[in-house]
Amino acid sequence: MEGGIGWFMRKKECVALLLAGGQGSRLGVLTKRLPKPALPFGGKYRIIDFTLSNCQNSEVDVVGVLTQYKPLALNSYIGTGSAWGLDRRGGGAFILPPFVRNGGGQWYRGTADAVYQNLNFVNSFLPEYVLILSGDHIYKMDYSLLLDYHRQQKADVTIAAIKVPWTEASRFGIMNVTEDSRIGEFEEKPRQPRSNLASMGIYVFTWRTLEKYLLRDSQEAASSHDFGKDLLPRMLAENRRLYAYPFTGYWKDIGTVDSFWQANMDLLKDNPEFDLYDEEWPLYSGHSLHPPHYIAPAAKVAASIISEGCNVFGTVENSVLFPGVTVAKSACVKNSIVMPRTDIGSEVDIQHAVIGANCVFKQGCRIGQADMTAGITLTGSHMFFPRATVFNQQ
């Protein structure tokens, strides 16, 4: 139960714990150097920005960020939380890595164990409720409404839920609910789901109830110490009050290269479901400063996000360029995502691709294919492609 901050802080009704330690192995080389929540998204953001912005906009001002895989990137990016308005007296953003036990390292063994290892941190704020969040989802949610719903239902646990396509249901925790949204059954990633109502990985727990279950679970040798696999089924079996909170807005779980590519492409529609420009729900970021982008007179740009510091002399269509990207004259980028500081030379053709940061493409390279059925081509970061290279690797 170590990992607390060691002194009493101001009492808070709700404390948020943001699980941000995921490796994201299905994202391939994109997460070779970064944890999934730190992955750049949407031209100027990191994936974790959206959850942190939700906290700020929902007036949840104590956020513990639980890091694990490649933590330095997130630690340095979040800092004191000032970019999200979380650097405040009596609250703030706190980086919570796995603690060291008996002189040896102990990684978080599961989502429940991650919270268990930080009992002291949570208890230092004496909260009524704990909000468990994920750092690898793209969405907007007012957590204050979720908390209100939890209180109204007198719930022990409230799980944010969304209908997903039946073909994807086996990827999620699936719930069966009664007419009043009380959860009667919860299955973690079932092979044959009986419902398509999926957990979003967003939970509100009444803290004293959760604390008891975490203490019990920590002593169970056979447990995988996971909310979906262990704690939630156990609470259901003991007739605890579990409720589903219906959510109907845009939500994307960034778990694969295809979902990452599609979520970026969703931003490029005339009326996108997920609006980066919504003044009523501002999105905050710890992005670095760059000069304005430049688009040359002969350049052709359509339906694209061109970030700060980009220089575009060629063609960019239906694509997202992160800061510091150069597209030379006669180069073409279509239906693609290009990470920061990549140099695209003349006569280079990039289509249906995700390009890593700090890459160099010399004259005449061909990356990806115009035929979408061939899949998304993915490159790592810091890669050099000599003249006339043809690269179509998924």
UniProtKB/TrEMBL annotation:
The record marks Q68, W107 as: Could play a key role in the communication between the regulatory and the substrate sites. Pathway: Glycan biosynthesis; glycogen biosynthesis. It catalyses: alpha-D-glucose 1-phosphate + ATP + H(+) = ADP-alpha-D-glucose + diphosphate. InterPro entries: ADP-Glc_PPase, ADP_Glu_pyroP_CS, GlgC_bac, GlmU/GlgC-like_hexapep, NTP_transferase_dom, Nucleotide-diphossugar_trans, Trimer_LpxA-like_sf. Residues 16-269 form the Nucleotidyl transferase domain. SUPFAM superfamilies: Nucleotide-diphospho-sugar transferases, Trimeric LpxA-like enzymes. Keywords: ATP-binding, Carbohydrate metabolism, Glycogen biosynthesis, Glycogen metabolism, Nucleotide-binding, Nucleotidyltransferase, Transferase. The keyword Nucleotidyltransferase applies. The keyword Transferase applies. GO terms for biological process: glycogen biosynthetic process. Its EC number is 2.7.7.27. Homotetramer. This is Glucose-1-phosphate adenylyltransferase. The lineage of its organism: Bacteria, Bacillati, Bacillota, Negativicutes, Selenomonadales.
